[in-house]
Amino acid sequence: SPPLNLLDVRSGVPFKLPVSFNGGCAKVGIRPEAILLGEGENRAEVTLVEYSGSEAVVYIRAGEVELRALSFGRSVVRVGETVDFRVQESGVYLFDERGQLLKAHG
Questions:
Q1: Which secondary-structure segment (H or E) carries 90?
Q2: CB neighbours of 73 closer than 8 A, spacing ≥ 6?
Q3: Burial level of 31, CB count in 10 A (0-12/13-18/19+)?
């Protein structure tokens, strides 16, 4: 499984997340399998697709942020395409500036 997507929320997140942050939150972690491609109101460009057996790691760029999404089965997205995506709340983790877990959702 690809590593957690870690984003610094202090510099802003250029897409909609299903959670809100408080003042103590410095980073948000998103599990790759919690990024659902082909649905939702966020949009991103596909930059790379890596196949590994029945899974594909799909790299997408939303604004200046690159994310890894895990797709099961043969991915139908292609590099250069724009895809819709959403993030499932159960795959979101909030961390403070020391990297301590504040909250796991789901």
A1: none
A2: 54
A3: buried
- Chain-centre distance for alpha carbon 48: 14
Q: Decide: 47 and 54 in contact? Cβ < 8 Å.
A: no
Nearest to 97 by CA among 22, 19, 14: 22
Only one residue has tokens 């966020």, namely 42
Starting at the edge strand found earlier in the chain, the sheet holding 65-72 runs 65-72, 55-62, 35-52, 82-87
The pair of structure tokens assigned to 44 is 């991103």
List pLDDT tens digits, range 62-78. Answer: 999 999 999 987 667 89
Question: What's the pTM?
Answer: 0.91
- Beta strands 82-87 and 92-95 are unpaired
